[in-house]
Amino acid sequence: MDNLFKPQHLRDFMTEIFLSFDLPHEDSLLATDVLAYSDEHGIDSHGVARLKTYYDLLKAGKINPKPKMRVVREKTSVSTVDGDNGLGLVIGPKCMEMAMDKAGKHGSGWVAVRNTNHYGAAGYYPIMALPKNMIGLSMTNSSKGVAPFNGKEKMLGTNPIAMAFPTEKEPPVVVDFASSTVAYGKVEIAKRKGEKVPLGWCIDKEGRATTVPDAMMEGGALLPLGGTKEGSGHKGFCLATMVDVLTAVLSGANWGPFATPFAIHVAPPERKVGKGIGHFFGAWDIDGFIEVDEFKRNMDDWIKTMRATPPLPGAEKVMIPGDPERLAYAKRIKNGIPLNGEVIKSLEIISRETGIPLPEHTLSSGDG
Amino acid sequence: MDNLFKPQHLRDFMTEIFLSFDLPHEDSLLATDVLAYSDEHGIDSHGVARLKTYYDLLKAGKINPKPKMRVVREKTSVSTVDGDNGLGLVIGPKCMEMAMDKAGKHGSGWVAVRNTNHYGAAGYYPIMALPKNMIGLSMTNSSKGVAPFNGKEKMLGTNPIAMAFPTEKEPPVVVDFASSTVAYGKVEIAKRKGEKVPLGWCIDKEGRATTVPDAMMEGGALLPLGGTKEGSGHKGFCLATMVDVLTAVLSGANWGPFATPFAIHVAPPERKVGKGIGHFFGAWDIDGFIEVDEFKRNMDDWIKTMRATPPLPGAEKVMIPGDPERLAYAKRIKNGIPLNGEVIKSLEIISRETGIPLPEHTLSSGDG
């Protein structure tokens, strides 16, 4: 059974941990805000569940707690930033701000980032653009876990793409998805429950389609969105390609199978082809294209039109991208954030080592 | 059995047809070049096979043969263009040029287009950016054919996205794919052959998964990329959403189910929410991010690395986005372009009505 934590208590704990590594106060709050966004919005795989990995990497001196970001190249609406091996959770929001500054001045702004690390949930960043009446975009590459279409070895990360669109009265449209059929975490969850996974999610080490989580985890690979030939798996490979090139080849980061692993005990990739991993941030100023009010009114209309689609027999109603996260948020802010025993165990280790007490928590009576 | 046409003969025929509607000479050549790109690269659904529809729409006065494009809004690196109801095949390349001009000056350039029509294959446009050492992007919305995830009615077009990345010695990487699992044309082909289609491609008019082409064509719908819940069909819906908003809501075109149909005998949508359909073009100047030579060298390395992935058992080798079209091009430029009886019949009608002779052709001995 899960345990429930108060959102602010979890935030305070995370901030204390970051401060213990001498991160500047502002940076500790920023990194906390990015991780808390995931926990508070039901994206369990990208929040405090990963604190232990950030902690291990900081402790081992593999991530720089006080990075000096610098612009290495620039041209009006675009630039490349070197993240000085800082936390993606800190470098990310700062680079998204830079992209928005450029968009405010020049109609659009684009920042490619190299020498950075895992940046949490991709959706956090485009949402930053909404109060400025901009459309935001973020992408990141990540360590290999996905096979290219027709290939049998891991060559690409789950390379997510996220965009957010402002609205008038309706909630904003927030798109955030990995370019693989599912994230690694979904296969992990099936394994924990002793369940099989659908065909099309992954292959084993021989490249055979498999429904057995262990078969994927022991030398197999996830499949790109679409999965098989019949499902148009080449399209997921196209998406992963776009993300890998824009985030890593364009910025000078490690691309494809050479992306830096987000783990402490994994051997480094056989080649180094750039610096750290890569992100790509962008913003379009709506005012440069159309009256902002007209755009927002039409977005509301668009949302209502899509919601009115009759649902498939037996299916839930048609939801808008961003709805599931908003529903989770409403519930979790009220009831607390459910963490499972494994995650709590990882936080207990951190607590023991740092002397920072674990926040109080209560047994959950449901799914939180 | 297919008939083979010489590429230049088909081009000349198309140009003559466009000229017969008093399109300016330059515009006729441009529209021809866009359609010929598809035929010459094996994208049979988007080339001369659609000439009859453009012809019908021009003949009925539904498309403006002499549009006066105008910039309706602008801000340094972005702008919105009204296509004056011209052919997308003419408005498209001109707007892509505008995006590249902006990218040359400001590092990136973005043009949203409204009041335009079907623009052929999405991949044509980003390829224009390659000789300028830019990364190109194009998207378009299109008339409804695809259900939103969990919905049972057509609400979105197949809304494709295309990008192209320059290289040094390797061929360029060209991504071009619809956000539905498959294009309508793939189901049509199965129907013609009397074959079933895989589950996950489409639903019937009751929203039930179907493998019968007719069941989709008679009131059913295509499914977004990913198809089912297990296949992560919500991700295809996210993609279609991104394309619909950037092309149509942002430009002031008809979005979602209200996109103008690309056909002469289809009733207009029940509501008009903008002008025509919408495109979105973009370009990033690589030189604004990184040394162009370094980028291209790394792209070559990226391509070789991906190609070296061991293939799935029994699968073809791993191909790079753009490979299938290049293979088709090499074959077709040499052997000719294969057209089936149905397409030839449509060209014969045009020929008869205009008095422009159909180009000579020979029976194909294979697949062309």
Automatic annotation (TrEMBL), chains A, B:
Q: Identify the Pfam families for this entry.
A: Ldh_2 (PF02615)
Entry keyword set: Oxidoreductase
Q: What protein family is recorded?
A: Belongs to the LDH2/MDH2 oxidoreductase family.
Identify this protein by name: Ldh family oxidoreductase
